[in-house]
Amino acid sequence: MTDVAEIKGHRRTYVGAMPGKVIQSLKKVQTENPLILIDEVDKLGRGYQGDPASALLELLDPEQNSFFLDHYLDVPVDLSRVLFICTANTTDTIPGPLIDRMEIIQVSGYISEEKEAIAQNYLIPQARSSSGLEDGQILRKAAFKVVSQTQTNDDEAEAEEDEKKEETKEEEAKPSPPPVTISSSNLKDFVSHPPFVSDRLYETTPSGVVMGLAWTSMGGTTLYVETGVAEGRGLLKEERGEGGMTTTGQLGDVMKESTVIAYTFAKSFLSSKDPTNDFLDKAKIHLHVPEGATPKDGPL
């Protein structure tokens, strides 16, 4: 949304002017205390038609929404009894003043079992109906699982719905005989290469690598922490420089503090076990968390 008029309406001097969506909704439900859902507020845009975020601020701010002014009506309207629910995939792009007027409720994405149930009960029947295929089991449960784990990695089911439509269209385009059942083995003939792969797991982690647990909007995942010696390995004591540690991987403040604590503890532990070993005092350690394009934070 980039047009303020969608929220506040057009002035009556314009041809085809009408009230904004909020006033239209109140007129439709015929009540002063409805529930209004505003979807994907993180996709608000700003252009020559105004700033919709500022108009939403007037809607959501308890100090202002008791006398909301629609341009078409040109009369203050009390919206203080309206319950607004806004949805977003991320809060990073929502303006700060607008976030301050909201109570944030985190909702996790669909797990694989939920995606399979949605596909089985809704997406497959809908795709089969739109493609003209007769009723029947053409997609085995194993293929459901493969699609849900490798073809979708979204908070919503739109991506999976597109995949189901593609499968049924491919099946429809093939000659009628012989009948074909889509299974995990021939799934690649109907859908594209999996855009998402499962996390890499070591059977035995190499030296300097440990596995941690992380949380994303998609649910739980694994996170590796890798360390290496940048300088100091194999050098004589007098040849080594000053020790220290460098971190990379877009770590947040809390995570950086955790690495400093771990580094300090490692030096203290080594000193208590072997006072003559000054390796960590002289060597330069490089700590990296993979997927450097993704910011990370939280305790290690």
Mean pLDDT: 79
- Largest beta-sheet details: 4 strands, mixed
Shape: flat
Beta fraction: 5-15%
Order of helical and strand elements: HHEHEEEHHHHEEEHHE
Task: Summarize this structure as a short list of keywords or feature phrases.
300 residues, alpha/beta, Rossmann fold, Helicase, Ruva Protein, domain 3, Ribosomal Protein S5, domain 2, 4-stranded mixed sheet, Lon_proteolytic, ATP-dependent peptidase activity, Lon_Prtase, protease, hydrolase
Describe this structure in words.
It holds the Pfam family AAA. Keywords: Hydrolase, Protease. Residues 165-174 have a biased composition (Basic and acidic residues). This protein is an alpha/beta fold and 300 residues long. It has three domains: 5-100, Rossmann fold (3-Layer(aba) Sandwich); 112-189, Helicase, Ruva Protein, domain 3 (Orthogonal Bundle); 209-288, 2-Layer Sandwich (Ribosomal Protein S5, domain 2). 33% of the residues lie in helices and 14% in strands. Helix 5 crosses helix 6. The longest helix is centred in the C-terminal third of the chain and has 21 residues, at 253-273. The two termini are 40 Å apart. The mean pLDDT is 79.
Please describe the topology of this protein.
Blueprint: H1 5-8, H2 21-29, E1 35-38, H3 52-60, E2 68-69, E3 76-77, E4 83-86, H4 96-100, H5 112-131, H6 141-150, H7 158-173, E5 209-216, E6 219-231, E7 244-248, H8 253-273, H9 279-282, E8 284-288
Parallel strand pairs: 1-4, 7-8
Antiparallel strand pairs: 2-3, 5-6, 6-8
Helix pairs in contact: 5-6, 5-7
Biased composition (Acidic residues): 153-164
Region (Disordered): 149-187
Protein name: Lon proteolytic domain-containing protein
